Amino acid sequence: MDMQSCNAGYCRLLLKRLGPLRIPVITDSLNNDGHGRILMNSTYFVEYFKNQNSSSDHEVNHTRAGPSLPWALGPFRNDSVGAIRCNCLIILQKWASRARHWPAAEIVEKVIAMGAFVTPIGFKWSEHTILNGGYALILLRRSL
Q: Does the pLDDT at position 57 exceed 90?
C-alpha cells in the first residue's frame, strides 16, 4: 500500500508479488503505471464485479455509484462494494491515537484487532484517480 503520493484516506495498491492463487478479480485489475510498477486499477476492479452474471433473471442492476454497484430484486434494494482486506496497522494505530471521547477504548482496541479494508474509489481531484483506493474502517461502523 502506497500512501505517500495520495490524499488522506486514500492509497495505491502496489503489487509486491502474486501468491499461488491467481484470483481473477486481482489479476484482471492490475495495471502497469509506466514506471515499472504494477498497481491495482480501481475501475477494472469494480468492472470485474459489474461484468459477473447476476444471480437471477429478475435482478435489476442500476448505474454505478462510486465503488458501489446498486441492484434490486423485487422490493429489495442492495449495494455491493468489492473490498480487499488489508494489513495496515500504521493507519489503524494513527486513527486510534487521536484524542476522542467516543467510541470507548474497548471498541477502539477491537477495531484495531479486526483490521481495515481498501475499497476501489478514486480521489476525484487526483491525476491518478483510477489507481487510488480509499481505506475504510468498515468493521468499526459495524461495531458501533
A: no
Query: Domain of 47?
Result: 10-53+82-143
Please spell the DSSP secondary structure of the chain, one letter per residue: -B-TTS-TTEEE-B-----SS--HHHHTTEEE-SSS-EEE-HHHHHHHHHTSPPS-TTEEEPPPBTTEEEEEETTEEEEEE--EEE--HHHHHHHHTS--SSS-HHHHHHHHHH-EEEE----TT-TTGGGEEEEE-HHHHHH-
Residue 71 maps to a domain: no
Q: Confidence class of residue 86 from pLDDT cuts 50, 70 and 90?
A: confident
- pLDDT band for 42, please (50, 70, 90 cuts): confident
- Domain membership flag for residue 136: yes
User: How many domains, in total, are found in the chain?
Assistant: 1
Residue at 99 is within a domain? yes
